[in-house]
TrEMBL record:
Record keywords, A-Z: Heme, Iron, Metal-binding, Oxidoreductase, Peroxidase, Signal
Domain Cytochrome c: residue ranges: 73-182, 239-379
Signal peptide: 1-22
Domain of life: Bacteria
Record's subcellular location: Cell envelope
Record keyword Oxidoreductase present: yes
A Pfam family this chain is assigned to: CCP_MauG
A GO term, aspect molecular function: peroxidase activity
Coarse class of the protein's main subcellular location: other
Protein name: Cytochrome-c peroxidase
């Protein structure tokens, strides 16, 4: 009930804010000289980039926006906040430092660099975050929603340094800092009708920008739009890609010893087509290590969409899993091929333990290569280069 009330209050605030952000609430565009001076042609207030009305395929139906609908104005502000190093205590780190456009908004480093050290988990890709049933964020789902998540790294001592602890400045000091910057006075007035900066406004704008980052120009999408459902062969796929798709979608059949005797790999049981989002009820996948330190971490139960795991040429967009321990699609598939029941892992997803034992998929090289071929069809190209998701300070 408490979580529902928080979400409701956030939605009410956002709706109220949106009602105050119409064209009637600001004067002439010429009244925003700091925006022009800082961003030049990368932000044109009279011709904003299209964030609110992007084309979404009809088969994509999941949406976790929770009342914070994307607006061109809000996402424009969110873009500036996302790339601005002023959001870190020493002006060296921005959200984009760990979520890099060229890497599907992830990081090629296992642990990303913060103002006081490195991140405790690998930086998750930010592709199609909107198109999911799951509303919680971070690998361990500790953020109630994306809005809440957006300012948690800013408040983290190691990441962006406005924690209010360990000698850090507080988040209120960041508000004071941003309030003294000319282009933020103008942007918040442009979006909300007032120069006042609040955490909720920051969260709303950042979440709108992040949810606007979408990828639907893949080979998979070109085939799916022509098919009645995912189970049909896609006419634009090779036989290998269609085989991989069937293996991905079809559940396995196991014997009493947890050995697959027929069927597919069952990947779609957790990574659900066509969004390829993570099932909210998923528990951990058997990888329970830590990036640094000793012991195990059984709390990692979330995952990003499987879209854009790799670039079109097959180059990985960075290591996979919360530990960054897996660096190739072949290794990722191999991990699920033989699941080991690690001592102390009380949170392993039961779908990986048929009959109470770790699954053995008995994969052939042909099957592995087919699934890899299919996973590569989930990558597009626009998301890596589209200017509306790029650094406005450049």
């Amino acid at each position: 009930m408490k979580n529902q009330l928080v979400t409701l209050c956030l939605a009410i605030f956002i709706l109220t804010s949106c009602s105050n952000s119409s064209d009637e609430n600001y004067e002439d565009i010429a009244d925003y000289p700091f925006i022009e001076a800082e961003f030049g042609s990368s932000i044109d207030l009279e011709n904003l980039a299209n964030y609110a009305n992007q084309t979404i395929p009809p088969y994509i139906i999941k949406d976790n926006s929770l009342g914070n609908s994307i607006t061109d104005k809000g996402a424009t502000l969110g873009r500036v906040l996302f790339y601005d190093k002023n959001l870190s205590s020493n002006n060296t780190i921005s959200c984009s430092s760990c979520h890099i456009q060229a890497n599907a908004f992830s990081d090629t480093n296992i642990a990303s660099t913060g103002v006081n050290g490195t991140t405790g988990r690998h930086s998750m890709r930010l592709i199609n975050t909107r198109f999911a049933t799951e509303t919680r964020f971070f690998w361990d789902e500790r953020a109630l929603n994306l809005e809440t998540q957006t300012t948690m790294p800013i408040k983290d001592h190691g990441e962006m340094g406005f924690s209010g602890e360990n000698g850090d400045l507080a988040f209120s000091d960041l508000i004071t800092k941003l309030s003294s910057i000319g282009y933020y006075k103008e942007l918040f007035k442009f979006v909300y009708g007032s120069e006042e900066i609040t955490e909720v406004k920051i969260q709303s704008a950042l979440a709108q920008f992040i949810r606007s980052i979408q990828s639907f120009d893949s080979k998979y999408d070109a085939g799916r739009i022509l098919a009645a459902n995912d189970g049909q062969p896609f006419t634009n796929f090779t036989p290998q890609e269609n085989q991989g798709k069937n293996l991905f979608l079809s559940p396995p059949v196991f014997d009493a010893n947890g050995i697959r005797t027929s069927g597919g790999l069952g990947c779609a049981g957790c990574h659900r087509a066509p969004e390829f989002d993570i099932d909210p009820n998923t528990l951990n996948n058997g990888i329970i290590g830590k990036i640094s330190g000793t012991g195990i971490d059984i709390t990692n139960t979330r995952a990003p969409s499987l879209r854009d795991l790799v670039k079109l040429d097959g180059t990985p967009n960075g290591p996979m899993m919360h530990t960054g321990v897996i660096t190739t699609l072949q290794t990722a598939i191999g991990h699920y091929g033989t699941i080991n029941l690690a001592p102390g892992n009380t949170n392993l997803d039961p779908r990986l333990t048929p009959g109470g034992v770790g699954q053995q998929l008995n994969l052939t090289a042909t099957e592995v290569n087919a699934v890899i071929a299919f996973l590569r069809t989930l990558s597009g190209s626009d998301v890596y280069t589209n200017p509306k998701w790029s650094n406005p300070f450049n």
